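Ticket reopened. Same input as before:
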Amino acid sequence: MKKTFPKHITGIKDLSSKNIEEIFAETSLQKKALADRNVKEYLKNKTVLNLFFENSTRTRLSFEQAENLTGLKITNFDSSSSSLSKGESVIDTIRNIDAMKFDYIVARHSTPGFMNVLLNYSNARIINGGDGTHEHPTQALLDVYTLKEIFGKISGKRICIVGDICHSRVALSDIIALKKLRAKVTVCGPKVFIPKGIESLGVQVTYDIAEAIENNDALILLRVQLERDAGNSLSSLKEYRKYFGINLKRISANENIAILHPGPFNKNVELDEDILERDNTFIFEQVTNGLAVKLALFKIMSEYKS
Ligand code: CP
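Engineering reply: fixed in the latest deploy. New output:
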């Protein structure tokens, strides 16, 4: 049977479990190529626009690093110095961008569903670098790849996503990816951070961090998204740290538990400094894996026409 891969990566929902496994197999090859300093320039004659309307360190820099290594010709869009400031609409901006015939667009925007606007007004291949509180597919791929490296498999592993679920685009993408690979997923946080009806995604809910630590193989900690007014629904960040913050004392009940965080983290809110230095904390390994995932995505997308 002919293998298929989506033209665009607007969300994990676009990918089958087979697609995800294919990305992971290629990610391992790219990680080795990175270690050997032997990444091939397989997109030498193609162009990419990094269209970021929201700030980013990890996603933007790792995309740029991957684009450089694959030989893509890079253009970066800076919304603050664009003609948006003269009143040009986002849609007209995109129609002008489309007229410049980029092969790939990597985009981030604060509006959930922004990728649909891009799909409507652009012919480039789209990769979502995060759209509001909706999806962040490359983050989920690197998170789940990291878990697969740690455990050897995802199926049956007990993974708990902790914190500001309701303002997070990482949470939804992680849940969809983990469920596609048959993990047992729990979400944990204060009631104000757990969306009503989230069980319909096939996840369990706990409001008790001690229970989450005891009953899971890994915790994916999420940032309290202060820029999306998450602080307003909490009594205080100090309270959050007291009841949900991760520190060595709290995880002593399951001291080998793997800790991940997509970054950036609010230090001494979601986690304490002492968590960063332990062997089973993978936050910076996630960033390395993020680069390999992006190399893999570009490689696979370049090989499939549709
Ligand atoms: N994890 C993540 O998306 O980080 P940035 O916002 O720095 O890209």
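The chain has a mean pLDDT of 95. Residues 283-303 form the longest helix (21 residues). Please confirm and we'll close it.
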